[in-house]
Amino acid sequence: MKVSSLKVYHHCGGCKKTQEFINSGKFRVNANGNKVDVWLIYRCKKCKHSWNLTIYERIKASKITPAEYTLFMENDFSLAARYGKDINFLTRNKAEFR
């Protein structure tokens, strides 16, 4: 199932040029002690190279609600789509639009 998102472009480390990246619908969660990082994973449309867009970076785990944390861990389709349509989130992660 494809995640509905805006068309975003970013410099691809695999292709070595700016390419369209697609919302994978998957989150990466990394916990280190009481700090948590959460990213939404995008993939290059051409070579599938990954680009992790930061949702949370080094925040206290208590700042993320248990319900939201569960959605990240379950790779919730609706949540991934919502982030994929959020211009502010995409812009903070240096996405380009065409």
Helix-strand pattern, N to C?
EEEEHHH
Low confidence ranges = none
Give the strand order, joined by hyphens, for the main sheet: 1-2-3-4
| Shape descriptor | globular
Question: Main β-sheet, in a few words?
Answer: 4 strands, antiparallel
Number of helices: 3
How much helix is in the residues?
Answer: 10-25%
Question: Strand share of the residues?
Answer: 35-45%
Q: On the 0-100 scale, what is the average pLDDT? A: 94
N→C terminal distance? 24 Å
Structural class: alpha+beta
* C-alpha Rg (nearest Å): 13 Å
According to DSSP, the number of beta strands is 4
Describe the structure.
With 98 residues, this protein is α+β, with helices and mostly antiparallel strands. It is 22% helix and 41% strand. The protein has 3 helices and 4 strands. It has helices spanning 66-73, 77-84, 87-92; strands at residues 8-11, 18-32, 35-44, 50-60. A 4-stranded antiparallel sheet has the order 1-2-3-4. The longest helix has 8 residues, at 66-73. It is globular. The protein starts with 7 loop residues before the first strand and ends in a 6-residue tail after the last helix.
